[in-house]
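Following the same procedure, backbone shapes were mapped to integers, yielding the entry below.
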Amino acid sequence: MEKTLKSLPSKKAWEDFNNGDWQNEIDVRDFIQKNFKQYDGDESFLENSTKATNELNQKLVNLKMKEREAGGVLEADTKVVSTITSLGQVI
């Protein structure tokens, strides 16, 4: 993807961060060490889970219960090497 002037982040986006090596190269460790601030608040900023999250969680709970009743794993593919994209959509 070719970067255009419009796609580059504004310098203003970084004005509240401390300077460091992270500005010239990919250095997540440096960024965190230079800009970490302890959060001492509570969990009031968190939102409740969405309907989709609750539905997915219920599917997982049901599958875990089935596995427990069956005494172990319900199904295992021994022919396909597991990668993030090898199994398609499972749920």
Summary: Residues 51-70 form the longest helix (20 residues). Residues 77 and 87 are 9 Å apart (CA to CA).
